[in-house]
Write a structure and sequence with these properties.
With 739 residues, the protein is mainly alpha-helical. Helices cover 52% and strands 6% of the residues.
């Protein structure tokens, strides 16, 4: 049971996996039963304490059930229909999971109860408080007493003497006297004390054993009721392991010893109501099919198929509200990049497999030839080499690895997703052709790969590798080395540098260390021009021009967004002063000027990286670096995105003498122009020099005519690569004119 994140500014509708905290919300009708439990507690009469357990699976809503029960015992007690005035109930809560693995659970139990006594909302009389302090003192003193009771439960209360004021001689006689005093005083209470202990099943086995040992020593006090919440199977297993370790490994063990121990402590068990199949399906559809899918192409979602596969396959894995929320949150992250590119039901089914059987998920991803028809020449040749019996053995092996309780459901999902699997299990001889419009996972290899958006191919990165690689960067040079090394390693989607840059974007946020953000920014500004090249053709598709530059810019943008505002000027000053990526500097200057309401923008962004007076210093550094570079090296004109560089330079320093002279120098020297164009195109730079790059100093037509004349005059002396470069230059389309 959960509540939604109210932050409407976020594009993702992530649901927090937390108990309900709104008494008016009740998705599964738990309130009525919680009300009955609360009424029973108020009417309970027992000569000793009483322990009630709420038993339910993880994620089934136990914590929400406790929330409703507590509200009925306190703020909403007037709603209880018990035929008489409800006496005051004091409620304490203890969440042992918060202290799991860090401190002594039992000590924290008494520490937290005593701390809650001091809260303003706990209106406890002095008389009751005195009794409670005696109870806390009793627990702390048990450790030192050589009695069976002390030996059983008191060993865990080390150090509690320092937090109580009540002083007691540590003797068996005084311990029992104190116990009798507590019993007498508790009998005189008008109301009841309810201690709620949640998330017991999240503790380690040892911690569960400690907690129940402590409860065994203190549960027999009248008017104190313990309300526990756990998964009974987990608790019994932990108790069984402690008291009968030999039986724990016996396959014929029926856990009778653990059950009997639990029965000595828990007087009454309330099984958390099983959510009806109809209501859970309604909750699933209401939770999952949010705005995320509203504008999805209707061909990609078949309502009849959804109902069928839900009942015959998916419902086996959607058993609790938590499993619904887990699925929803995964889809919120994974689906948006693939909207209208994958079949919705196929995608949900595959995500269910990933969450419950990750080995099968990876098996599908890494062995596509066993699941889809690969109609490429290579795919067909490989398929011919695979013997039918090998295919049958392959599918038999993975189905055998599925738990018996899930076999039928997984088999139905898999045969629905993959006709080739259905062919194997049903011994059918043919496979129907998939509809291209429905974009099923088995349509073709390219479509198949889209379903594994965050599960890259073996020759690319996994998410874990990306994060580890990112956080291993110790200085800017290491970042550059990573990009340099990965740039030459090709995968299906291009160089691994592209995959790296794209992959680290989601990992750059407010939690990213400041030093790492600094290394990323400075490293990006030092990336050499030779790395800013157009990618190769891979798998018959071409990565769009400017892809790597766009992702570097995005990485810079994200890093600056989360870098401290007060330090951004200092960071950019260092990045511009020590860097040589003129294209990136120009791109950054455009963005920051636009953030300040300049350069075709009229609105000042509240999230601007720098103010105008700060930006002037960066502008000056950029212009001075350009003046030096272009006056000493004519091939500076071969830089990536040279058109943007000249545009920004002229924008910052109109008719700059250094720029005018540099252009005139190369204009007078045919060899210089040939060298610039050849280098720009031979290196396959992103944004190479084009006929309109030198505007407004040289028009598009002037530049074309100049190069055309050079080509005609020098064709016989030029090599093939030079001729090809000049020809490519001349074939560039002129810029679009906006009327």
């Amino acid at each position: 049971m959960s509540q939604e994140n109210d932050d409407s500014s976020k594009s993702m509708n992530i649901i927090r996996d937390c108990p309900v905290d709104d008494f008016g919300v009740d998705a599964f009708g738990y309130k009525n039963i919680a009300k009955e439990v609360a009424a029973s507690i108020c009417q309970l009469h027992s000569d000793s304490g009483y322990v009630i357990a709420i038993n339910g699976k993880w994620g089934s809503g136990k914590s929400s059930f406790l929330f409703y029960t507590e509200k009925y015992l306190t703020e909403n007690c007037n709603e209880l229909e018990i035929g008489r005035e409800v006496t005051e109930t004091i409620v304490f809560r203890f969440d042992p999971w918060l202290f799991s693995g860090h401190q002594d659970i039992v000590s924290q139990f008494f520490i937290q109860l005593q701390a809650q006594c001091k809260r303003p909302q706990q209106k406890i009389s002095k008389k009751t408080l005195k009794t409670l302090n005696k109870l806390f003192s009793y627990g702390s003193c048990l450790r030192a007493v050589p009695t069976p009771e002390g030996q059983i439960a008191g060993w865990g209360f080390t150090g509690l003497n320092t937090i109580i004021e009540y002083k007691l001689q540590k003797s068996v006689k005084s311990i029992f006297q104190l116990k009798e005093e507590i019993k007498t005083e508790l009998q005189e209470l008008d109301g009841k004390i309810v201690i709620i202990i949640d998330d017991i099943d999240r503790l380690t086995s040892k911690e569960i054993q400690e907690l129940f040992r402590a409860l065994k020593a203190v549960v027999d006090f009248q008017n104190i009721i313990y309300l526990l919440a756990y998964d009974k199977e987990i608790v019994i297993d932990a108790l069984e392991y402690e008291f009968h370790p030999a039986l724990h490994t016996n396959p014929n063990n029926n856990h009778r010893a653990g059950i009997k121990y639990l029965e000595k402590i828990v007087q009454f068990e309330v099984p958390l109501p099983v959510i009806g199949e109809y209501h859970l399906k309604q909750y699933t559809e209401k939770t999952i099919f949010t705005d995320l899918f509203y504008d999805t192409n209707s061909d990609l979602f078949d309502q009849t198929r959804w109902t069928d596969i839900y009942h015959k396959g998916l419902k086996q894995f959607i058993l609790t509200p938590r499993s619904v929320i887990r699925l929803h949150n995964s889809l919120e992250l994974l689906y948006p990049p693939l909207k209208n590119e994958v079949n919705v039901i196929d995608f949900i089914c595959l995500e269910i497999i990933r969450q419950n059987y990750p080995k099968l998920y990876n098996l599908i991803k890494e062995n596509h030839r066993y699941f889809i028809e690969d109609n490429s020449l290579i795919g067909q040749l490989i398929s011919l080499s695979i013997k039918p019996e090998s295919i049958n053995t392959f599918h038999k092996n993975w189905i055998d690895s599925i738990e018996d309780k899930d076999k039928l459901s997984v088999k139905y999902i898999m045969t629905d997703l993959f006709p080739s699997v259905k062919k194997c299990f049903d011994n059918t001889s043919s496979i129907s052709s998939p509809s291209p419009r429905k974009l099923h996972i088995h349509l073709n290899y390219d479509t198949f790969l889209k379903y594994f958006r965050f599960q890259t191919e073996p020759d690319l990165f996994s998410n874990t590798e990306l994060i580890e690689l990112l956080h291993s960067i110790q200085d800017p040079n290491e970042f550059i080395m990573i990009i340099s090394q990965l740039k030459g390693e090709m995968g299906r989607g291009g160089s691994r540098a592209l995959v790296f840059l794209e992959g680290i974007l989601p990992s750059i946020d407010e939690k990213t260390p400041e030093e790492l953000l600094k290394n990323i920014v400075i490293g990006c500004f030092r990336i050499e021009n030779k790395l800013i090249t157009k990618p190769e053709v891979v798998n018959q598709s071409v990565i769009s021009m400017g892809y790597i530059t766009k992702y570097i810019s995005k990485v810079i943008y994200m890093a600056l967004t989360f870098y401290p505002k007060a330090k951004r000027l200092e960071l950019l000053r260092e990045a511009f002063s020590t860097g040589d990526s003129f294209w990136l500097m120009a791109d950054g200057i455009i963005i920051i000027h636009q953030q300040n309401g300049e350069w075709d923008e009229t609105t000042i962004s509240p999230d601007r990286f720098l103010k105008l007076d700060e930006l002037k210093e960066i502008d000056k550094i950029f212009v001075e670096k350009l003046q030096h570079a272009f006056s000493t090296d004519v091939c500076a004109f071969a830089s990536p995105s040279i058109t943007t560089i000249i545009y920004v330079w002229n924008k910052l320093s109109p008719d700059d003498r250094y720029l005018v002279d540099a252009i005139e120098n190369i204009w007078k020297n045919d060899d210089s122009l040939i060298a610039i164009i050849y280098k720009s195109y031979e290196m396959k730079y992103v944004g190479p020099i084009v006929p309109y790059s030198l505007e407004p100093f040289k028009s598009d037509n002037e530049f074309r005519e100049k190069v055309s004349d050079i080509l005609e005059k020098n064709r016989s002396s030029l090599n093939k690569q030079q001729i090809a470069s000049l020809t490519d230059f001349l074939s560039t389309n002129p810029p679009l004119k906006v009327e």
